Amino acid sequence: MPLDPARIRALFPAFAEPNLVGQAFFENAGGSYTAQPVLDRLDRFYRASKVQPYGVYAASIEAGEAMNLAYERLAQAFNVTSDWIHFGPSTSANTYVLAHAFAGRLAPGDAIIVTNQDHEANSGAWRRLAERGIEIREWAVDAQTGHLSLAALDALLDGKVKLVAAPHCSNIVGEINPVAEIADKAHAAGAVLAVDGVSYAPHGIPDLQALGADIYLFSAYKVYGPHQGIMAIRPELAASLPNQGHYFNEAKPRYRLTPAGPDHAQIAASAGIADYLEQVAAIAGDAVQGPDPFRRAHAAMRAQEIALARPLLDFLRTRNDIRLIGPADPERRAPTIALHHAEPGIEIARRLAARGIMASGGNFYAVRLLEALGIDPHHHGVLRLSFVHYTSPEEIQRLIDALDAEL
């Protein structure tokens, strides 16, 4: 493993909290622990510059500069310019506003492709455009594996399609979808690609230039940061969409697609995500390669998670009473691992909690996916075990032992 768990965990105050000592955290897909650099920036903003930003006095100028820095630093992490970056209260809210903006650009008879692999945030808002005469085409998963076939996408694409909305990886299936290939196919058909990166971004901020997505959305609180939704949008595409903010902010790119009043402090704190990723790259050192700290952090985090996932997936393969959703190969998936068992997922999670394993069960807002997989999303659901690079090998073994005892 390229990352020393002790050095990584030292950057997260949660691991020193008395109420969390002895608890192994396996619900990271619902929100990760917050990194120290994020907390430092949040504390600084609240203590020294909790005023209206972008004014003429010193504290206001500092506040505005702290917010501007977050746009710049996240753009660095994505390998784009800062005019790609937009903040909103959550990814669900950001997608809702974005879909409303597209409604003003699309015409009846135009088509949108959505999947049933998604969290509802990147599906429901787009599907509602059917009420405006937009044709909704569903790119459906394989009912056994949850896999999205590129051949199935090809069958849906034609000149009527204006947008494809798909996940980088599902919050249940976990399989990493080939976004660059999806982008090529969408662009060849004259469509734009909106990617829900909520379940992927905690495992490494992607290089958007290499990925090719026109829109990439994720939740900062799942990427070691504050509770904000972040959208990266190709600037020329953003400028072509109808203004969703106050009419007098039409010419301000940061206000046009995020009409909610911004949380100044949390935006400023988000620069700490980039700070943390640079620390990850420094801890990895020469163990990984990449053109910049963010690509090296991505490589290190993925390598760490693959190594951590392998023994867990090997154990699950020995159990014929468990249905693993998604691939068993750790290199093909994020470490968000959903299991279907004869017992409802939440009941298993309760027993695991008694053993110091923090996990959960349910449908995780992927109701359409579970229905497609033949799993009752409302009364049964799945047990979801999700971890990231700061999880330790010892915690993985504790989880295996607990599953062996409780299933």
From TrEMBL:
InterPro entries: Aminotrans_V_dom, PyrdxlP-dep_Trfase, PyrdxlP-dep_Trfase_major, PyrdxlP-dep_Trfase_small
Domain called Aminotransferase class V: residue spans: 25-399
Domain of life: Bacteria
Alphabetic keyword roster: Pyridoxal phosphate
UniProt protein name: Nitrogen fixation protein NifS
Organism field: Devosia elaeis
